[in-house]
Amino acid sequence: MSVSPLSRLKEVAVSGRYSPKENFSISWQSPSNIALVKYWGKKSGQLPATPSLSMTLDKARTTTRVDVAFDAPRKGLLSVNGDPDHPFLPKMQMLFDWLSCGIPALNGITLHAVTSNSFPHSTGIASSASGISAFALCLLTISCRILNLELSGDELMHMASYAARIGSGSACRSLFAGYAVWGETSCLSGTSDEFAISSAAFVHPDMLTLHDAILVISGKPKSLPSTQGHQSMEGHPFFSNRIIQAGQHLEEALRALSANDFEKLCSVAEREALTLHALMMSANPGTLLMKPSTVEVIGLVRDGRKNGLPLFFTLDAGANVHVMYPDASSAEVEKYISEVLKPLCEDGRVIFDRCGSGPVMLNEPMPSHDCFSS
Ligand code: DP6
To answer: Which atom of ligand 1 is nearest to the CA of 171?
Structure first.
């Protein structure tokens, strides 16, 4: 994209063509994502220390509505789900403050957000990725509306990725269908530390059919918030090698995705997952997030593969295991999951999801969601 749409928005914002209008609401639904090459460690300015690659999920989504008022006495982002101290508010506030520096009109309105997830808490699905990306889309759509600016869908997603990163790094990858890459890398053109880019140009269509079954080993909240985890990479004895390794893994994963080489993807994704945990364990203080059942499931995933099933695992910063497999083999892999892996899950909980097609704007009032745990 030659001219940054964010600059266009800011230009319009400072030219003062904005006039208060009637109150309105904007709703977006945005998915979570699971990283195959992990973002772990930051540079200053909420920039990643390494490039990362993720698959966008389909069913694991956050729906967010933002109600905008021009006539209320207090301005700014005041509440989430009616709560002025909602735990999600600080990240949303960070994004709002950052955006309103460039778009002063945002400071003249009152916002209340209402948000809900289609998935249960603490199950290994990143609600900050879906929640912050949905909120970024709401804020940008609101900005365009009050500034009378029209953007193409691609421009909006590009800008939302840029903005979402400020609230939560992994959120910037949730704006795109299929797979997304965040972080500058010489092995792919157009990449940046400031926003993620879509995978459309490089992924083999069969790779867009991948399923992700999330095996809930523990439903307890994470003992290591990711912000703290990123910080623990500062001065970490292995981190300089990790930076080199992440670049190599990204290249390997991109080759696997474009060549539809499932075996290569298994190999690199599993090494990435175990590296993430090895980095956490060897930090000071170190954190061990895997549970005995996590290790058992990993062994059984590998046994299944030795016996001919096409599946691999990845892990987030937690005990739960993401098991990934192609659509063409979903019946046999899901049978294996139900019979062999599910008994190791807390209360037999498995959440079935798959590669998804990105955010959608909702024109209807925000619907309520059911969890899709089975
Ligand atoms: C292990 O995006 O949650 O899930 O930028 O501080 O909000 P902040 O961190 P966050 O970190 C995600 C870490 C990870 C790996 C990944 O998604 O790439």
So the answer is: 2
Q: What SS3 state is found at 343? A: helix
> What CATH code is carried by the domain that includes residue 34?
3.30.230.10
Model confidence at 12, pLDDT cuts 50, 70, 90, reads low
Tell whether pTM > 0.70. Answer: yes
Distance 195 CA to ligand 1 centre (A): 14
C-beta 174 within 6 A of ligand 1:
no
Same domain, 132 and 269: no
Q: What is the DSSP letter of 347?
A: G
Distance 40 CA to ligand 1 centre (A): 7
Residues 146, 46 share a domain: yes
**Residue 183 shares a structural domain with residue 110:** yes
Name the average pLDDT for the chain.
92
For the chain, helix (H) and strand (E) counts, in that order, are 9, 13
Total structural domains in the chain? 2
Asked if residue 314 belongs to a domain, the reply is yes
- Report the C-alpha gap between 138 and 144 in whole angstroms: 10
Q: Which among 32, 34, 38, 39 is the best mutation to test ligand 1's pocket, defined by most ligand atoms within 8 Å of the CB?
A: 39
pLDDT, position 97 = 95
Largest CA distance in the chain: 66
